[in-house]
Write a structure and sequence with these properties.
The complex is a heterodimer of chains A (about 220) and B (about 240).
Chain A: H1 8-12, H2 14-41, H3 45-60, H4 63-77, H5 84-110, H6 113-121, H7 126-156, H8 168-179, H9 183-211
Chain B: E1 2-11, E2 14-24, E3 29-33, H1 40-46, E4 55-60, E5 63-64, H2 70-76, E6 77-80, H3 92-102, H4 108-121, H5 137-149, E7 155-159, H6 167-181, E8 186-190, H7 194-200, E9 203-208, E10 211-216, H8 218-223, H9 228-237
Parallel strand pairs in B: 3-8, 3-9, 6-7, 7-8
Antiparallel strand pairs in B: 1-2, 1-4, 4-5, 9-10
The chains are: A mainly alpha (about 220), B alpha/beta (about 240).
GO biological process, one term (chain A): amino acid transport
GO molecular function (chain A): transmembrane transporter activity
Main location (chain A): membrane
């Protein structure tokens, strides 16, 4: 075990890389997911069909394949020599958006129908109704599921190691290969991921508490 | 003020309203009564376009309701629901000022001072900072009435406003509604409160199976209902 001690800081540096993927993809995935959810709930049947097709495609194919596809196919068919970071962010945010859109759609549909009617009866325009009345209530249903999605995203980000991004996982594998010691580096990686998820869960629970002020 | 002509409303294969025609004049208080499932609520919801008629016409201040005229109609009508539908994430005062600020674009201070006056008139000035979930049913419904009034409607629609309340809270809500009748507000009230209908209404609409079976003055309706169905109904509820 002691022979990998000098390598631990090297693995720990991967936290920054992993976080970059997760934060950027999390934000982009959320924004795209909101748009998709609104399309699913809206009146236009074309956007509904497209949003549903999007979701079933990204949920129906392996994430690792989507990632590899973006990383290798884009440089083949376009002049863009895509970096591992860009490929990871594109694949993760598009994939996450599919799940987020379902979470938000379900959350909005969980809001009492009477809230929509009260807003309509008061002549509140659709956008204002969604932004100021429905979403603030839906967030209570959305948040727990969204936290799950971000935990999943954090853990699954480890697949970026297959396209060579220097995240926690990849660094642990490099140290393993260098030292022929698998127990040490991979255990370190396990502990890091586990602690990160615990921290995320902790903040998620705090946020949920704060949302319940009007109960 | 409101003119309903041969109104039909169906949900899929079920016909809920069947050829309803009536007229409600300005300042009139109309009580809509009838057995459950008779279409009372659906009728009321057709008056502000929460339901769009399958056939026939509803005109509010000469404007026929359609998907295009909904905004115009809803500016003129306020609605109070059986289950209140207050916005639970907003305080009482924010419930009242929400639509004036976001729909009419009224300045926040002005909206708040108007809201405070309304809260005063429904006897809830001390609850302005409370969240709806901390209020009793009767208080919630009074806030809901004030919220509708904050938009200064010409017509108020009440959909069984006391049906979800504990018995001891019915009176405080009816009292607020009575007070409102003295202001000359045009009101359409779907209700099971026969005492209220008899005392306050200018006209009774008795609905059964989606049709107006009897349209009469309360004094006449409650003492000498013409139709068998109304007699039968009154016999059961009184």
């Amino acid at each position: 075990m002691s022979d990998i001690l000098p390598s631990i800081p090297f693995i720990i540096k991967g936290i920054g890389v992993t976080l970059q993927f997760v934060i950027v993809s999390g934000i982009l995935g959320f924004l795209i997911g909101v748009l998709l959810a609104l399309a699913k709930l809206g009146k236009k049947s074309i956007s509904k069909v497209l949003a549903d097709a999007y979701t079933s495609f990204f949920r129906g194919t392996p994430l690792i394949l989507q990632l590899v596809y973006v990383y290798f196919v884009i440089p083949q068919v376009t002049p863009w020599d895509i970096t591992a970071f860009a490929a990871g962010v594109i694949a993760f945010s598009l994939n996450s958006a599919a799940y987020v859109s379902e979470i938000i759609r379900a959350g909005i549909q969980a809001v009492d129908k009477g809230q929509f009617e009260a807003a309509k009866a008061l002549n509140v325009p659709y956008r204002t109704m969604m932004r100021k009345i429905i979403l603030p209530q839906a967030i209570k249903y959305i948040l727990p599921a969204l936290m799950n999605e971000y935990i999943t995203l954090l853990k699954e980000s480890a697949v970026v190691s297959v396209i060579g991004a220097m995240d926690i996982m990849r660094r642990a594998q490099i140290v393993s290969a260098d030292t022929f010691n698998y127990l040490g580096p991979l255990t370190v990686a396990l502990v890091i991921y586990f602690l990160m998820v615990r921290i995320l869960t902790f903040f998620g629970a705090k946020l949920e508490q704060r949302m319940s002020f009007s109960d | 003020m409101i003119k309903v002509t041969k109104l039909d409303k169906s949900f899929k294969d079920t016909k809920v309203l069947n050829g309803i025609s009536t007229e409600i004049v300005k300042g009139e208080v109309v009580a809509v009564i009838g057995p459950s499932g008779s279409g009372k609520s659906t009728f009321l919801r057709c008056l502000n376009g929460l339901e769009i008629p399958t056939a026939g016409e509803v005109k509010v201040s000469e404007v026929p309701i359609s998907n295009k005229s909904l905004n115009e109609i809803r500016v003129k009508t306020g609605m109070v629901f059986q289950h209140f539908h207050l916005f639970p994430h907003l305080t009482v005062i924010d419930n009242l000022t929400f639509a004036p600020i976001h729909v009419k674009g009224i300045d926040k201070h002005e909206a708040e001072s108007q809201a405070l006056e309304l809260l005063e008139s429904v006897g809830l000035s001390d609850k302005k900072g409370a969240y709806p979930n901390h209020l009793s049913g009767g208080q919630k419904q009074r806030v809901a009435i004030a919220r509708a009034l904050a938009m200064k409607p010409e017509i108020m629609l009440f959909d069984e406003p006391t049906s979800a309340l504990d018995p001891e809270m019915v009176k405080e809500v009816l009292d607020v509604m009575k007070k409102l009748t003295h202001t000359g507000m045009t009101m359409v009230v779907v209700t099971h409160e026969m005492g209220f209908a008899r005392e306050v209404a200018d006209k009774i609409l008795f609905l059964d199976h989606g049709s107006i079976v009897e349209e009469a003055l309360p004094s006449k309706f409650f003492s000498k209902p013409e139709t068998l169905r109304a007699q039968d109904f009154l016999h059961k509820v009184l």
